[in-house]
Amino acid sequence: METHTLETVGADLVHDVRGPLPSSDGRPPLFMIGQPMDATGFRALAARLPERTVVTYDPRGLGRSTRKDGRVDHTPRTQADDVHAVIEALGAGPVEMFASSGGAVTALAVVARYPADVTTLVAHEPPLITLTPDGPAAVRARAGVRDAYEKRGWGAGMAAFVAMTSWEGEFTDAYFAQPEPDPAAFGMPAEDDGSRDDPLLSDRSWAVSGYRPDADAIAAAPTRVVIAVGEESENVLTGRTSVAAAELLGLRVTVFPSHHGGFLDGEFGYPGKPDEFAVRLRQVLDGAS
Length: 289
Description:
Blueprint: E1 2-7, E2 11-18, E3 30-33, H1 43-47, E4 54-57, E5 66-67, H2 76-90, E6 95-100, H3 102-113, E7 118-124, H4 135-152, H5 154-166, H6 173-176, H7 206-209, H8 215-220, E8 224-230, H9 237-248, E9 254-256, H10 274-285
Parallel strand pairs: 3-4, 3-6, 6-7, 7-8, 8-9
Antiparallel strand pairs: 1-2, 2-4, 2-5
């Protein structure tokens, strides 16, 4: 693996390349992106695709990529510009792309803004909460996570986030009537360390979850777009947002193994099924539905 840093006006973007460029198999490089997850989250998946040249990166302000623009918010448009800049700097385009969570939102913005950059996009569980039928209630639930974090710190915020993302079905009065979840019940610390800069629990990433993809621009792009959803996510929030995103784009979801972090091993706590996930990703990139 080689690590590079691309210096731009707004950020220094650190990215890793596993394998040769140009790729030895004649296929486009496979670019993997997440948000707020950085490149470390793709170690397990990249290791299971040894035949591919894989590019990963840390979004600006996350992991090793430092910001110089004086901002703390995360927006799909800015991140799409960064991904485009990395692709151009590597001379690696067009690429195939696997993008998960907020990275899937960024990737949809890349296709809309830079349609020549990506041949196939597998967008895994984009958390586009405003697209769901209960969008206003989902926005209210998101605000509840931020409020818990602001009032009581990381443990309380993360407990609220887990409660929100594991809730099945639409956010009803029953959801909002629940008592605030106890961090200890989720194995999380109750003490407050005073920090309030977490991109997942604060409002710094609301532009990501509130984004509306440009369906017309995506339809006009030459990119093959696949909206992927984990088999365990059917009734929870990111499963519902995946279905809503697919409907917006006139597509049907493609089912993958496991859950929202289905490509992760045990390094980050709740493991998925990375072996099965890699097999499915390989099939989909090869053209399977």
